[in-house]
Amino acid sequence: MKKQNSPQYYHDYLKLDSILDSQYLLSKELGVEAHDEMLFIIIHQVYELWFKQILYELDSVITAFDKGTVNESHIGIAISRLDRIIEIQKILIDQIHVLETMTPMDFLDFRDLLNPASGFQSVQFRVLENKLGLDKSSRFTYGSRNYKSHVRKDHRENIQKAEESPSLFNLLEKWLERTPFLEFKDFKFWEQYRSAVDEMLANDKGLIEKNERLSEDEKQIQLKEYAGTEKKFDALFDQDKHNALIEKKEHRLSYKATQAALLILLYRDQPILHNPYKLINRLVDVDELLTTWRYRHALMVSRMIGRKIGTGGSTGSEYLKKTAERHRVFEDLANLTTFLIPRSALPKLPDHIVRNLGFYYDSRGNK
Ligand code: HEM
Asked: Is 304 close to ligand 1, i.e. is its CB under 6 Å away?
């Protein structure tokens, strides 16, 4: 039975006694003058609250995808939850400006008191990375220490649990692999797409070779670049080459999932593919905004402490720049644009397939 609700009081409902009583200034306790420690604590607490909200939304997206069948409404919900995460991420990037009103000298007033605590020990941040699907074997670490070794045992277990549970990356990959769109009976999408690509590449190569404004050296440079693009397409059309890239950690998304994602991007104008297309784009946004935060944080750190090591013992801004470069989750989805071809060159889908892909009703209202 539903419980009766009692009248609520703003302050109590929001548990403001505990929240507003949680800014404990070490400098005050130790008799050190450090006005900015209050800002430093509050900004970290605000970040952690937003991390909590992001994880709450992410969990619901993971639950929606952790099912045998993912229907249209699950995808719609996932998109709106990801939209919320994206808006929060923009705030996370923006509020670094507030922190930057603290000057490096202000920070030095209390920095030594924090040792060896560091954002490096943020459990929620690690759980977030793992739930999104950061590949543990690609993690950049320092001092040959596992990233979990910097936190307490109970925290380590939480992070480990998130590392072992299905991540959004894994679930998305499985969902893409299951999409029926690649099997069009009489229409061999992959073959037709390949001949359209061959034509486009031959055309691009011809344009370089025939360009009279280029010197011989310039032509050779451009042809070398072109060969690189051709190599990327080779791996797209050859599963063994694709798998070799996965082996070398140059690619992560499985062959079948890559094909399905590409088809969604190419035929995004078909009504039934609108939402899958939006979903892929939102994941790229989340990944990009996390990377932007990482760079922004690294730049702020380099201005704040220069080349000093971090309170957590890393090489500081150098370490942070490396994680910004390497800790991408949905980079393969972003890079799929390499394989887009103009709409005019796209193999035309037969009418009966368009009917299957669209919300098509005849004049009597039959599907
Ligand atoms: C004066 C401000 C700050 C400085 C100087 C600073 C410095 C650093 C440094 C040097 C690291 C690398 C680990 C280490 O050696 O300690 C780090 C990591 C980190 N910091 Fe900050 N930080 C600041 C503010 C923040 C804020 C406001 C947050 C928000 C939660 C934050 C979150 C993190 C996270 C999540 C990591 C781990 C990043 C990773 O391993 O990829 N930091 N920070």
From this structure: yes
* Strand-pair partners of 143: none
CA of 290 to the centre of ligand 1 (A): 14
CATH number at residue 259: 1.20.58.480
Number of domains in the chain: 1
Residue 338, both tokens? 């390499």
Q: Is residue 173 part of a domain?
A: yes
Distance of CA 82 to the CA centre of its chain: 11
Count of CA atoms in the C-beta half-sphere (13 A) of 29: 7
Pick the residue whose CA is nearest to atom 32 on ligand 1: 119
Contact by Cβ (8 Å): 303, 110:
no
Q: How far is the CA of 300 from the centre of ligand 1 (A)?
A: 10
Check: pTM over 0.85? Answer yes or no. yes
Contacts of 16 by beta carbon, 8 Å cutoff, 6+ apart: 10
Residue-number span of the structural domain to which 155 is assigned: 10-182+255-337
Quick check: is 43 in a domain? yes
Query: In this predicted model, which residue has the larger pLDDT, 284 or 352?
Result: 284
Do 257 and 251 contact (CB within 8 A), yes or no?
no
**Token pair for residue 177?**
């692999």
Interval 20-48: pLDDT, tens: 999 999 999 999 999 999 999 999 999 99
The DSSP result for 79-123, as a single string, is HHHHHHHHHHHHHHHHTHHHHTTS-HHHHHTTGGGGTT--GGG-H
The SS3 assignment for 187 reads strand
Q: Is the CB of 110 under 6 A from ligand 1?
A: no
Q: Is the minimum distance from the CB of 311 to ligand 1 under 6 angstroms?
A: yes
List residues bridging with 187 in a β-sheet.
Answer: 184
Please state, in angstroms and as integers, the Cα–Cα distance from residue 343 to each residue in 154, 193, 279, following that order.
53, 12, 21
Count the Cβ atoms, other than its own, within 10 Å of residue 127: 20
Residue 125 alpha carbon to ligand 1 centre in Å: 11
